[in-house]
Specification:
Elements lengths: L2 H7 L4 H13 L15 H16 L3 E4 L5 E5 L9 E6 L12 H16 L8 E6 L12 H7 L4 H6 L8 H9 L6 E2 L8 E7 L4 H5 L3 E7 L1 E10 L3 E2 L11 H15 L8 E3 L3 E4 L5 E2 L2 E10 L2 H15 L7 E10 L2 E2 L2 H13 L4 E6 L5 H4 L5 E6 L15 H19 L12
Parallel strand pairs: 1-5, 3-4, 3-6, 6-17, 7-16
Antiparallel strand pairs: 1-2, 2-4, 7-15, 7-17, 8-13, 8-14, 9-12, 10-13, 11-13
Helix pairs in contact: 2-4, 4-13, 9-10, 11-13
The structure holds zinc ion.
Length: 427
C-alpha cells in the first residue's frame, strides 16, 4: 500500500466528532441554542475537564502552562523533535455559540484520536492546545493565553487582570486547576514545527461562494483610535448659531469625512464608529464634549497605514470652532501566514476533493500569536449566514468533517517532515 493511498483511507470519525460537539454544547447551555462559558468559570472548567477525560482515556499526555493553556500530546517516533500543534479555545462569549473555538479543539482531538485508532505513528509529536481566555469576555485582553505564551503580554499583567466582580485571573485559574487533576508543566514558547488552527469562518464568504474550506492567508490588521472634541455648553433655546461651539456637529463633520475616506470599492476596509458619548447629554444643552472611537481593519499593511495617517488630519485639528484631539490606543499590523503551511493545507484540500479558496481572517485568533513562534496558518469552514458571537451560530456536520479531514492530512504531512525552518532543539 502506497503511503498516498493510506492517507486517503484515513478519515476522522464523524459520529465521534459530533458526539463530542453535543457533549460540549451541554456544558453551560443557555436553553436558547447557545452556550455561556466565561473563561475559567465553572462551565469552562467542566468543558476542559471533559476534554482531559477524553485525552486521558487515550493515554495522551496532558500538561498546563502558567497562564492556563492546556496541552494534549500524542508522542511521535522522535519525541525530542518539536511538535506540530493545533487547537483553539473552549471559552465563549457571554453568551456565545457552540462552534467558535470549540470546533478547532474537537477537530484537533479528532486528528490525534484518528491516528491512534489506526495505530499510525508520526515522526513528530502532535500537540493539541486549548488556549485560555481567547474571547476576552470575562478577562481583558482577548487571546490572553496565546499572547502570554508568545511573550507579547507579561504573565504578571495577565494574572492580575480582574473580571467585573473583581476576581483575578490568578484566583480563577487556581480554582479551575484544582478541578483538572494531575497535569504536567508546559513551558511558554516551546519550540514548535508548525501550527494550524481550524475555526469557523465567522463571516459569510465561504457560504456565499459555496465552498467547503478556507485556506487562511493571514489576519487583518486592526487599529483603534479615541477622539475627543471639546466645545462649549450653552442654552439650547437662547444661544444663536454664531455663538455656538457644538461638539456634536463638529463630530458629525469629522465622521462624515472619515466615512467618505472609508469608501472602498473592493470592500476590504472595515471602518466602524462603535462608541460615541455626548456631554452633558441633556435635551436642552448644546453638547460641550463628544468622544468617539474609530475601529479600522484591513488585511494589507499599506492600505491600513494610509487610512491611519489620514485620521490625524481629520480628527486632530480644530473643527467648527471646537478643539479636537485623537490618539491611537491599539495598532496591530496585519499578520501574513506561512506560505508553506498554506500550501500543505491547499494540497490537503485538493487531496480530499474539497472546494476551497484563500482568504484573510477578519477576526483575531490565537494563531496570530503562534505565527510569531512558528510557521502557522488556519483552516476555515463555512458557518450559517456568517453568524458568530451569537447563540444561533451553526456549521454543517459535513463541513466540520471535511475541515477535520483536511486538518488531519495537513498535520500528518507536517508531522512527518524532518527539515525544519527553525532549529531542532528538543522541546
Ligand atoms: Zn474563536
Amino acid at each position: 500500500v502506497s503511503s498516498q493511498l493510506k492517507t486517503m483511507e484515513l478519515s476522522v470519525d464523524l459520529d465521534r466528532l459530533m458526539s463530542r460537539h453535543h457533549a460540549l454544547a451541554k456544558i453551560g447551555a443557555t436553553g436558547r441554542g447557545g452556550v455561556c462559558r466565561p473563561a475559567l468559570g465553572p462551565e469552562d472548567t467542566a468543558a476542559r475537564r471533559l476534554l482531559l477525560d477524553w485525552a486521558r482515556a487515550r493515554s495522551f499526555s496532558c500538561a498546563i502552562d502558567p497562564i492556563g493553556n492546556l496541552f494534549v500530546r500524542r508522542n511521535g517516533g522522535e519525541p525530542g523533535w518539536p511538535p506540530v500543534s493545533t487547537g483553539s479555545h473552549l471559552d465563549t462569549q457571554i453568551p456565545g455559540g457552540n462552534y467558535d473555538g470549540i470546533y478547532g479543539v474537537i477537530a484537533g482531538l479528532e486528528v490525534l484520536e484518528t491516528l491512534e485508532d489506526h495505530d499510525i505513528s508520526t515522526r513528530r509529536p502532535i500537540e493539541l492546545v486549548v488556549w485560555n481566555n481567547e474571547e476576552g469576555a470575562r478577562f481583558s485582553p482577548t487571546t490572553m493565553g496565546s499572547s502570554v505564551y508568545s511573550g507579547a503580554t507579561s504573565i504578571e499583567a495577565a494574572l492580575e487582570s480582574c473580571d467585573r466582580e473583581g476576581i483575578s485571573v490568578r484566583k480563577a485559574l487556581a480554582e479551575s486547576l484544582s478541578k483538572l487533576g494531575n497535569l504536567d508543566q508546559h513551558a511558554f514558547g516551546a519550540p514548535c514545527h508548525a501550527y494550524i488552527e481550524a475555526h469557523i469562518e465567522q463571516g459569510p464568504v465561504l457560504e456565499a461562494e459555496g465552498l467547503s474550506i478556507g485556506v487562511v492567508t493571514g489576519i487583518q490588521g486592526i487599529s483603534q483610535f479615541q477622539t475627543t472634541i471639546t466645545g462649549e455648553a450653552a442654552h439650547a433655546g437662547t444661544t444663536p448659531r454664531r455663538r455656538r461651539r457644538d461638539a456634536l456637529l463638529a463630530a458629525m463633520s469629522q465622521i462624515s469625512g472619515l466615512a467618505k475616506l472609508a469608501e472602498d470599492p473592493g470592500d476590504k476596509l472595515r471602518f466602524t464608529i462603535g462608541k460615541l458619548t455626548v456631554l452633558p447629554g441633556t435635551p436642552n444643552t448644546v453638547p460641550s464634549e463628544v468622544a468617539f472611537t474609530i475601529d479600522l481593519r484591513h488585511p494589507q499593511r499599506e492600505a491600513l497605514d494610509a487610512f491611519r495617517n489620514s485620521i490625524e488630519r481629520i480628527c486632530g485639528t480644530e473643527t467648527l470652532s471646537c478643539k479636537s484631539k485623537v490618539n491611537e490606543f491599539l495598532n496591530s499590523p496585519p499578520i501574513d501566514f506561512d506560505a508553506r503551511v498554506r500550501s500543505v493545507i491547499r494540497d490537503a484540500a485538493i487531496g480530499r476533493g474539497a472546494s476551497f479558496m484563500e482568504l484573510a481572517s477578519g477576526a483575531t485568533h490565537d494563531a496570530k500569536y503562534m505565527a510569531k513562534l512558528c510557521p502557522t496558518s488556519m483552516i476555515f469552514i463555512p458557518c450559517l449566514s456568517g453568524i458568530s458571537h451569537n447563540e444561533a451560530e451553526m456549521a454543517a456536520p459535513s463541513d466540520m468533517e471535511c475541515g477535520a479531514n483536511v486538518l488531519l492530512d495537513a498535520i500528518k504531512v507536517l508531522a512527518d517532515e524532518t527539515a525544519s525552518p527553525i532549529a531542532q532543539v528538543p522541546a
